Amino acid sequence: MSLNRSEKEAVVAQVADLAAKSQTLVVAEYRGVTVADLTQLRVKARAQNVNLSVLKNTLARRAVAGSAFEVVADQLTGPLIYGFSEDAIAAAKVVADFAKTNDKLVIRGGVYDGKALDVNGVKELASIPSKEVLLSQLLGLLQSPVSRTARVLAALAEKKGEAAAA
């Protein structure tokens, strides 16, 4: 079913608005993926605030023109699914995790911070821990010297208490 001109303009405007808000774009080829699997991928994506879209490539090229995602405009060929996310790693993580369990979904590339990413770049971006995990790791690092000092002081106090009792 083809779209008329006004519908195409609306799709381009919607995707351009989405691209303006997003930090990351991941592009994957979905040839051979079942509808049930794609539905499962969309559910996971929605849970992570990732917008997955199947678009005509010419409309996608027009939508990303003039944005940070324009660097991959020449690679937009074939049946592609586009994952946009405001979070820097969410789109890469959702698509890469799904691609691990479904070999028919093939990551083609992506864009982060205005730089084109190849397949390995997308996988590396997906392997970065989430913001919450990084913050908890940082908090653990900041707490470790204090907790070690407290344990040493407690052991010294206990040792002095044993010496005084003897």
UniProtKB/TrEMBL annotation:
NCBIfam families: PRK00099.1-1. The keyword RNA-binding applies. The keyword Transcription does not apply. One of its GO terms (biological process) is translation. Coiled coil: none annotated. Keywords: Ribonucleoprotein, Ribosomal protein, RNA-binding, rRNA-binding. Belongs to the universal ribosomal protein uL10 family. This is Large ribosomal subunit protein uL10. GO terms for molecular function: large ribosomal subunit rRNA binding; structural constituent of ribosome.
